[in-house]
Design brief:
mainly alpha, single chain, 76% helix
């Protein structure tokens, strides 16, 4: 959950971890129960990652990039789409006929979002921010991921300051629910 380094390195590492979970899902036969376990793990990582980006990365994008408002708004919209898919997926077991459709849409949405961030947003941010700023953002993102929710909350605010106020409480409740249910444990 915390990898070290600047914000870009931190978030790219998160991207690779989610892609690895997607690969595990794709490597299993439809209906295989472990697909749900991997989907839950991917959801937990994606939610923590998204919350941290919305709390710290996108405000920095708005501040430092010429087209920052447009880029940040587009990225937040991608998060909203993915979060609704994760919410829909939450109610499906691996053998549910809707599971494959929803998880396929989620993987497509997330992969497109990752490509946009890594090919457009991150290179611009690297040019616009000092190494010190990127390292400080990396530390803030790591702290936010530790406190972030692990379940989708599509109606929760996705911009500061409301998201920074509400996310830790939702995160605590989610982590308690996960601990009690065993959600997110390794296969």
């Amino acid at each position: 959950m915390g990898h070290g380094g600047n914000v870009i390195d931190e978030l790219v590492t998160d991207h690779r971890e989610v892609e690895e979970l997607f690969g595990k899902i794709e490597g299993l036969a439809p209906g295989e129960k472990n697909r749900k376990l991997y989907a839950d793990q991917a959801t937990m990582e994606l939610i923590r990652h998204s919350v941290a980006e919305e709390e710290y990365l996108y405000p920095a994008v708005r501040k430092h990039l010429v087209n920052g408002n447009t880029l940040a708004d587009r990225e937040i919209e991608d998060h909203s789409t993915a979060e609704q898919l994760m919410k829909d997926l939450e109610g499906c077991e691996a053998d549910d006929p809707e599971f494959d459709r929803i998880v396929g849409e989620l993987m497509s949405e997330v992969r497109s979002h990752i490509a946009e961030e890594e090919q457009t947003l991150f290179p611009q941010l690297r040019v616009a921010c000092s190494d010190k700023e990127l390292n400080e953002l990396g530390e803030k993102v790591r702290r936010a991921k530790k406190m972030a929710p692990t379940r989708p909350h599509p109606s929760a605010p996705d911009t500061p300051p409301a998201n920074k106020l509400l996310a830790p409480g939702a995160g605590l409740v989610d982590r308690l629910r996960d601990a009690m249910s065993g959600r997110g444990k390794d296969v």
